[in-house]
Specification:
Blueprint (H helix, E strand, L loop, with lengths): L2 E4 L2 E8 L6 E5 L13 H4 L4 E5 L16 H14 L5 E6 L1 H12 L4 E7 L11 H11 L2 H12 L2 H4 L2 H12 L7 H13 L13 E6 L7 H10 L4 E5 L6 H4 L1 H13 L2
Parallel strand pairs: 3-4, 3-5, 5-6, 6-7, 7-8
Antiparallel strand pairs: 1-2, 2-4
Helix pairs in contact: 2-3, 4-8
Length: 265
């Protein structure tokens, strides 16, 4: 699959589905890349022209050596879509990708047909938080230990009791062909911490779905309730029995909910 030159960035992207279908843009979260949509792309691309890409500093997109903001991610997305000739699309953002999608909708509302914000919030955490801990741990412990630490935060205890699932997930992550350097991970964390679009979300008038796992510890249900209350006429859906990574723990229900919303818009 190709890359696109975006200023000094080589941005990796993939397109799945029929060319004449409505575009659906997938924007992933912290430390994740196109490979993280493994449960979504096969299903969503049956009805939509799915465009997925690696954000800067992850996967096959260029790494940088300077700091940036969520606004930078949004502009990367805008330039990629513009060069691909996309005039209007649905947007699905997960976690950090939800922050990017919100920012994109505020900056380029004419390009957004609908908005799906998954396991996210209207701003990054402040003070001592999970991001604080992760920024320290990613530099000081082994990659395997770091991944295990992440899993404890993002999956439900019931999922973690499934030894086969954990073994497979861990092996897949450790064998990832494009591992993210710790310094790149830290830059993404810092971008999240800087964001706060709380006061501007009333400007979003596109159809919006806020989707969250009922046991999401990082961005709990109350965050999604607050987020949905800030966006005029936003809908909200709570997925039962999953934590922060609802797209991994309950992929069939996640995909069904996304498709039902998209079909209305």
């Amino acid at each position: 699959m190709p890359t696109m030159k975006i200023d000094d960035l080589e941005m990796y992207y993939e397109i799945h589905g029929e060319e004449n279908e409505i575009p659906l843009v997938l924007i992933h979260g912290l430390g994740l890349d196109v490979l993280g949509w493994v449960f979504q792309i096969p299903e969503l691309s049956k009805k939509y022209r799915v465009i997925a890409f690696d954000n800067r500093d992850v996967g096959r997109t260029s790494k940088t050596d300077t700091s940036y903001t969520i606004d930078t991610f949004a502009e990367d997305t805008y330039h990629l879509l513009s060069k691909l000739g996309v005039e209007k699309a649905h947007f699905l953002g997960f976690s950090m990708g939800g922050l990017i999608a919100q920012t994109f909708a505020l900056k380029h509302p004419e390009m957004v047909r609908s908005l799906i914000l998954c396991d996210t919030a209207p701003r990054g955490p402040r003070g001592l938080s999970w991001l604080t801990v992760w920024k320290e741990l990613v530099k000081t412990i082994s990659r395997e230990s770091f991944i295990k630490n992440l899993y404890v935060w993002v999956f439900t205890p019931e999922t973690l009791e499934n030894e086969d699932f954990v073994k497979t997930a861990l092996e897949n992550r450790l064998n990832h062909p494009y591992p993210q350097p710790p310094e790149a991970y830290i830059r993404q964390c810092e971008a999240i911490e800087k964001l706060d679009v709380t006061e501007r979300l009333k400007e979003i008038n596109t159809p919006t779905l806020v989707l969250v796992g009922d046991r999401d510890f990082l961005t709990p249900v109350r965050y999604s309730e607050y987020l949905a209350s800030l966006i005029p006429n936003a809908e909200m859906k709570v997925l039962r029995g999953c934590g922060h990574v609802s797209l991994f723990e309950k992929p069939e229900e996640f995909n069904k909910t996304v498709l039902e919303f998209l079909e209305k818009h």
